[in-house]
Prior knowledge:
By secondary structure, this protein is mainly α.
Amino acid sequence: MATEIPVMLVAEASAAVDTVHASTDAVAGMHEAGAALHSKVFPPFDPSSFGAQLIWLTLTFVILYFAMSRLALPRIASIIELRKARIDGDLSAADAARQKTDAAITSYEAAVAAARAKSQAIAEETRNAIKADIDAKRKSVEADLFKTIADAEANIQAAKSAAIYHVSEIAADTVKALVTQLTGSATHDEALKAVTTVTKE
């Protein structure tokens, strides 16, 4: 038992010495690491890490490239195609609307020209009809007027002839009366013949 205690004490002491040495080594290692950290350059600019950096850069670029080419770029391309299709559709609709507008303008101009020509034709036809009606009425009035004038002239001539006949009768009666008073006898026919002869001269 007495021999065991010193052995334990020796063991504990050696363990404590080992612990102290370990602590001292750890502190020394920390000092060395700190000094090494202060003496090293910024890692991205450290030439000894360029190879690893290039590998990681290449790997990251490849991953990003495949991610963009498989995910982002197809979506962007589909959006661009969709917008292009929409723009083409809008342009087609605008062109169709422009063509409809041009057709409507052409149709309107044709309708206006046709209406103008029709109105001119109607005006000309109305003018000709009015002129023909006026000419017909004028001719009818002139014919009526000529007929009235001819009838009046005929009536005047008849009245004149009747007046001359009556004047001749009156003159014959007057001559008969005068001749009878002067000569004593005269016939109506002789008196009328004498008046007719004087009238003709």
